[in-house]
Every structure is written in structure tokens, then in C-alpha cells.
């Protein structure tokens, strides 16, 4: 009986060692993630101001590649779909194309744009500490707008009696909802609501990987995505949109 117990113990120890070795020798991992995000706009130039936080959502797949044959250094890549609300308000009056003689006051633009995002970063991981690894990451993100939508709120209502509450800002048919300064084409009363398709950003993140079983890990962390490209296609306004997200996912 003692020999059987010793043999059984030996088999368990060997299996545990093999799993640990597989974990340590792994040079590639893939997975998926979901993350809610909180976004805001930082206006660099022009008569526009941030108008509150937006609540968005990200989902996508991840792939990490070991660098320099060292388990502490990884190249992290992702392919995400990100919903990124941006809320801004004009600080003055505007004149629109529909009723050129009317002043539009308290004009707010509530954008809800969806991006295809491709972040690439360098991830620095600690050694295993009781089944957990901690990491930090630094990188860049490229995003391309797939869907553009804006709800324009004004006094009087820019949509009139159309029954609309939002529109595609980049569709030329909807340019009637731009503000062109009225008959005098006054630049101070003008705003073109189009959104630039490309968005570039710098990424900083930190988190933890918790080993569940086999090659499966639970990943959780925070990521700050700091935009550095202008989101508006308007000559008078220059702004960046940023977001902070909670990352939750599984890797294999």
C-alpha cells in the first residue's frame, strides 16, 4: 500500500511539474477580453468644451508573443471593437443651414462612435508569485471609425419636425445639420460636425494574470488610452478623446 501511495504521489508531482514547465516554456498566448470604458474629450483649440463622461464598451481578441526568449517581456497585440462616446458643448451661439436667421443656443453634440482598434504594446511581466503574475504595458493604438453617430441638442431643435434625434455626421446628405454661420458665413457661428476616420493614441496599462488551470489564465487590469489625433474634421476646433477602461479576459 505504501508503494502505491508513493507511486501515486510521484505521478501527481510529475504531472504538476509538466504543467508548470509548459506554463514557463510557453512563448505565445491568445485570448479574448471585454471591458467597459469611461471617456471624455480634451479640447485643445476652439470654442468647445467637454460635456461630461461617456460610458462605452470594448470587446475583442488578444495575442501575446514572448520577446528575447524571456518570460518577462512580451509583445501584446489586440483587435478590438470599441464604442467611444464623446460629449461636447459649444461655448457660444451657432447658425445653421436649415434656418439661417435663427441663433441656436446651448448646442450640445453627443457622439457615439464605434472604432476598429489595433493596439500594439510591450508588456512587462513579473515572475510567478503564488499563481499570479503582475504586468505593466506601454504602446500605441490605431483606430478606424466604423460607425459615426451624433445627437445634436439645441435651442431651438436643429431637427425641427423631422422626428430625428440623431444623424450620421459624415454623410453629406446630413450636412444640412451642420452650422455654417448663416447668410453671412460668420466663422464664429460655424461648426462642421464631421468626425475624422483615424484616431491615434498612446496606451498605458497595468494588471494581473491569475493562473486558473492548464494554459488558462484570468487577466484583469486598467488601461488608459490617451488620444493624440484630432477627432473633429473642423478647422476651428481641435480636440482629443481619451478613455479609461477596466480589462477582463481569458488567455490560453
**How much of the sequence is in beta strands?**
over 45%
What are the secondary-structure elements, in order, as H or E? HEEEEEEEEEEEE
**How big is the Rg?**
25 Å
Shape: elongated
Low-pLDDT regions: 1-23
CATH architecture descriptor name: Beta Barrel
Mean pLDDT: 90
- Count of discrete structural domains: 1
Specify the number of helices. Answer: 1
Walk me through this protein's architecture.
By secondary structure, this protein is mostly beta strands. It has a single domain (about 30-250), classed as Porin. It has one helix and twelve strands.
In short:
This protein has one helix and twelve strands. By secondary structure, the protein is mainly β.
Notable traits:
two-stranded antiparallel ribbon, disordered N terminus, eight-stranded antiparallel β-barrel, 1 helix, Porin, mainly beta, 252 residues
What is this structure's SSE topology?
Layout: H1 2-25, E1 28-45, E2 48-50, E3 54-67, E4 70-90, E5 105-125, E6 132-147, E7 150-155, E8 179-180, E9 190-191, E10 198-213, E11 216-227, E12 238-251
